[in-house]
Design goal:
- By secondary structure, the protein is mainly β.
- It has one domain: Neuraminidase (6 Propeller).
- 12% of the residues lie in helices and 42% in strands.
- The chain contains 4 helices and 24 strands.
- The strands form 5 sheets. Strands 4-5-6-7-3-24-23-22 form an 8-stranded mixed β-sheet, with no helix packed on it.
- The longest helix has 14 residues.
- The N and C termini lie far apart (39 Å).
């Protein structure tokens, strides 16, 4: 009886999270609408040297370099020839639903994140196929050879079970030999693989974190309610992993090995000002870059207009918190 009572309490505590100590609010420095994305739906951001890059989850054959010289940014198309997608171990049912959805919305590959290593290689995660495409500075694109253990372990831990809830973001270390992946929701999680000669494989266990349950939307959200915990993107900075937690409207710093949360910062106060609100009942932030001076956060508005009528993708620039991203609570 005592065990059953304890288990019930544990499940209750993990089902809905309401933070006892609100995250500190980030300060917005600028806002940039993005022109020139054929499919709209900005779903990832990366910084390669001094250049910013983005992807759309509606475009399979191109990525975008961002011209940031003016307040309104221009997306410059870079064509990519994508080879045949390898079998990653996803079940036929999930792959079939992705294929069918592509005829309605576009984007069979469903690019959901982009990151860069110090050599300028860009890595793009395909949610539709749970695969990672490498696009070098010169030469053809190729899919990483990833061990099937990645998908197998993720699914065994309760992740990658639902359509449109697979890998949503990724980050790579500067050397280009360690890769983190974020499973989006129901259950959300963080996974780690390393390059071992020709194959990317688990270093022990692939799964750093697998987490279910619900989390309350911030109080500023109209008709706030509990929604599934989620991850929308990742960024690696100063040896720490930063997670973009869309429905909670926050960024969290985590240990890159254990995935343990160390500190979180909210962007709800700025994102949910009345003129910036969208009618959609969930968060729309899908892209994240952390650097020494601040954070870039990109909005995938699903082609919907916000309250002020803006229909283009948006990128926000937030200042780094006082004391920097490494500051302790």
């Amino acid at each position: 009886m005592r065990f059953g009572w304890a288990l019930a309490c544990a499940l209750l505590l993990t089902s809905v999270t309401v933070s006892a100590e609100p995250a500190l609010e980030l300060r917005l420095l600028s806002e940039h609408a993005v022109d020139g994305m054929r499919g709209g739906n900005l779903s990832g951001l990366a910084q390669c040297g001094k250049e910013l890059w983005t992807v759309s989850d509606r475009d399979d054959d191109q990525i975008y370099r961002l011209d940031t010289r003016n307040p309104t940014w221009q997306a410059e198309t870079v064509h990519i020839d994508v080879p045949l997608v390898p079998d990653t171990g996803l079940p036929w049912g999930l792959r079939a639903r992705t294929w069918a959805a592509s005829f309605v919305r576009g984007g069979d590959l469903d690019f959901e994140g982009i990151t860069c290593d110090s050599a300028g290689n860009r890595y793009i995660v395909s949610e539709g196929h749970a695969a990672v495409l490498q696009v070098p500075p010169t030469g053809p694109a190729s899919w990483l050879k990833i061990s099937p253990m990645l998908v197998r372990e993720a699914r065994a831990s309760g992740m990658l079970l639902h359509f449109n809830a697979l890998f949503e973001g990724l980050a790579i270390n500067p050397a280009g030999d360690t890769l983190w992946l974020a499973a989006e929701r129901e259950r959300r999680g963080l996974l780690l693989i390393k390059r071992q000669q020709t194959v990317w494989d688990c270093d022990g266990s692939c799964v750093l974190l697998s987490e279910g349950g619900m989390e309350m939307q911030p109080a500023q959200f109209p008709h706030a309610r509990a929604r599934p915990r989620d991850f929308a993107d990742l960024s690696l900075f100063d040896g720490k992993l930063f997670t973009l937690e869309r429905n909670a409207f926050q960024i969290c710093r985590r240990d890159a090995v254990t995935a343990k949360v160390e500190r979180c910062w909210s962007f709800a106060a700025e994102a949910l000002q009345e003129n910036r609100r969208y009618s959609q009942p969930f968060g729309l932030a899908e892209a994240l870059i952390i650097d020494v001076d601040g954070a870039w956060i990109g909005i995938d508005n699903n082609n919907g207009a916000r309250a002020d009528g803006e229909v283009r993708p948006i990128v926000w620039r937030f200042a780094a918190p006082e004391g920097g991203w490494s500051a302790k609570p």
